[in-house]
Design a protein that fits this description.
This protein has three domains: 120 residues, 3-Layer(aba) Sandwich (Rossmann fold); 123 residues, NAD(P)-binding Rossmann-like Domain (Rossmann fold, 3-Layer(aba) Sandwich); 171 residues, Dihydrodipicolinate Reductase, domain 2. Helix content is 36%, strand content 25%. The chain has 16 helices and 19 strands. The strands form three sheets. It has an eight-stranded mixed β-sheet with strand order 13-14-15-12-16-17-18-19.
Length: 457
């Protein structure tokens, strides 16, 4: 017979408060040894908790400091609870009664106890009291404007309140019809002069530089569609201006912020597939069939799409040593590009983008012991497979994914501003520079080709 009763409980414990403390004390009183599972950021985001302010490290430290807690573990995925019950030989699982019924499936392993919650206090309330709502304005009136506004509704610390676009009539029509955005501007300086703290820029790529620069100079945090700038000097200038102004400048590459994508990067680091040799990713989209105007396509497939495969390749293989382009053009702009890069230890990146050729949008990361397969659309990462020569060893990860994926990016943007952070680990300034460099190099390569063709004539 065991003489010590083990109790386990789980939670986020953001801004640890009296409600959490009461629950933990009640849980401890049920037995002798209390284990607390603190959820990590990825898991929280994947279960729809987007507004957590404190980092996992900070939250773990706060729980570790409680003298009646005996052990702290980190909870990383949905299936972990059942595994922990066996692993730690748990007798009682305890959780607040806001979860009644949700964990009855654990009764197979342990006694499940739903404890009374403390009324009148919550992390949401504390966040509201301690942090100001971030007022945000939208720059540009495009196809995705509405999705951004819709997705921002899931991020409680942000309020999108204004819009700017050059077309006065379009802005007027939009604000008249929108139940959320009531203020419209066709004058950028006036728009920047309002109490917004941050802007989201979604305009044609050529306009990014000027719009970002003005916003940064006005002291606004900027989230801008990728690529931020089409010229290397401009990109560096904008990043150092953001640093000088002490504001955040982030590229809106939504894949970088998805919970499953970040988990994938963590899992790969564990080394199960051995030494990585090659990363291959494809992203194609037939925009013409989706009725995008020619002016959009004329920006070129590399400019529009290469950010996604470059992100995966850069995050896994790091800085590149050389790059080669195999492009196909139409009326002077690229409709497809096969981009091959070399990185340290002879590793290779293969990025395939196209706007006039359709292909399977998957990704493969090959290693000496196995590979990871991310099915299409890999850039909206939901699941991925670790596969080996011995197929019995293969395993799969799958994550919840809500909406179109933008909410995870908006949540990171808001949370960085609130934490006073000016760079993101998920997409650092050096990540952004490396990803953009592919575009810049391609534009240079195209110019050189043009010149040598002229010479030949
Ligand atoms: N709690 C409470 N009283 C409050 C607020 C929270 O008793 N006023 C309890 C919750 O019921 C939960 C614990 O404190 O048992 C942690 O709450 P959260 O940090 O909100 O975490 P939660 O999302 O409930 O974690 O695996 C994670 C768990 O399944 C749930």
């Amino acid at each position: 017979m065991k003489n010590k009763k083990t109790v386990i409980t789980y939670g986020t414990y953001d801004m640890l408060h009296e409600g959490h403390m009461n629950l933990l004390r009640r849980a401890k009183a049920l037995g002798d040894y209390l284990i607390v599972g603190v959820t990590d950021e990825n898991y929280d985001r994947s279960r729809g908790k987007l507004n957590v302010v404190q980092s996992t490290k900070k939250r773990v430290k706060a729980i570790e400091a409680l003298d009646f807690v005996d052990k702290v573990i980190v909870e990383k995925h949905k299936r972990q609870k059942a595994q922990d019950m066996v692993k730690y030989d748990v007798d009682i699982f305890a959780i607040g009664d806001d979860w009644v019924g949700a964990f009855d499936y654990l009764k197979e392993f342990v006694h499940v106890e739903y404890l009374p919650r403390t009324e009148g206090i919550s992390s949401t309330k504390l966040r509201r009291e301690n942090f100001d709502l971030i007022k945000m304005g939208i720059v540009g009136l495009g196809r995705d404007t509405q999705s951004f506004i819709d997705e921002a509704q899931y991020v409680s610390n942000i309020k999108v309140s204004r819009i700017y676009a050059e077309d006065f009539l379009a802005v007027k029509k939009f604000t008249k019809e929108s139940p959320i955005i009531k203020y419209g501007h066709d004058n950028y300086d006036e728009f920047l002069d309002t109490p917004i703290q941050a802007v989201y820029i979604d305009t044609s790529l050529k306009k990014h530089y000027t719009l970002i620069k003005k916003a940064l100079l006005a002291g606004k945090h900027v989230l801008c569609e990728n690529p931020i700038a089409l010229d290397g000097k401009e990109l560096k200038e904008l990043l150092s201006l953001a640093k000088k102004q002490k504001v955040l400048l982030l590229s809106a590459l939504k894949t970088a912020f998805l919970p499953a994508f970040n988990q994938l990067l963590k899992e790969i680091k564990k080394g199960d597939i051995g030494e990585i040799k090659e990363v291959r990713a494809t992203r194609t989209s037939l925009y013409r069939e989706k009725n995008y105007p020619d002016s959009f396509l004329e920006q070129g497939a590399t400019n529009i799409l290469s950010g996604y495969p470059s992100l995966l390749i850069h995050k896994i293989l790091g800085k590149r040593k050389s790059i080669t382009f195999f492009d196909q053009t139409e009326n002077g702009y690229d409709i497809s590009n096969l981009i091959i890069s070399t990185h340290k230890n002879q590793t290779v990146g293969v990025a395939r983008v196209a706007t006039a050729a359709k292909s399977e949008g998957d990704a493969v990361i090959s290693g000496t012991k196995g590979y990871v397969y991310i099915p299409a659309p890999w850039w909206l990462t939901k699941e991925f497979y670790f596969r080996f020569e011995d197929t019995h060893k293969s395993y799969k990860f799958s994550y919840e994914f809500e909406g179109c994926g933008l909410r995870y990016m908006i949540a990171e943007f808001a949370s960085l501003i609130q934490r006073g952070k000016r760079t993101s680990k998920m997409l650092s300034p050096s990540d952004m520079v490396s990803i953009s460099r592919v575009i810049l190099d391609y534009n240079e390569f195209k110019e050189k080709n043009k010149k040598s063709k002229k010479k030949d004539k």
